[in-house]
Prior knowledge:
Blueprint: H1 7-26, H2 29-36, H3 40-46, H4 50-73, H5 79-96, H6 98-109, H7 116-123, H8 129-140, H9 148-161, H10 177-192
Amino acid sequence: MEATKPKKTEIIEVAAREFAEKGYDGANINEIAIMAGIGKGTIYLYFKTKKELYLETIRTIVDRFNKTSDNIISMDLNSFEKLKLTIETFFQLERESISFLKLWSRHQFQNNPVFPEEVSEIFKDLRQPLCEIIEEGVEKGEISTPYPTVIGYFILSMIVMLMPTLQRPNSLPLVREEERIPFILDIVRKLLQK
């Protein structure tokens, strides 16, 4: 028998879809309750307000990204292998957790978050694995760059740019799906190899 997700986790996952699709103002607690298969009052057992639910959704994104980052960074791999795994993981998230990825992207790149003070405070804890891996690679002598943080964000920007699901509707993919990871890895190697 399949174990069911805890109700709070399920509510957050449904809320992420609603917030990602409609934004904070357009999101509706009634719709979230219906999609979660519960009554509206049940949501309020876990979250006092829509704002509290939204901020908890953002915290969940940061926690999930950090857990994934911790797993990759702690692996016994060289820097280029870790970078490859991180890039692959972002594209895997596009398939598996697009709602969370859309909310993350909105706050990471658009600089107009809802509740900017509270969201900024939550995002202070967000790890930047690409930057950390490049810094580690420089320290180990595996990577050569005087600007590890800039290069990390440059790679992140390329990843986001090549995800049609994070772009404007009807925008054409710049690189075919099966070529995205090799394309980015080729640029990364050219930028960072000694």
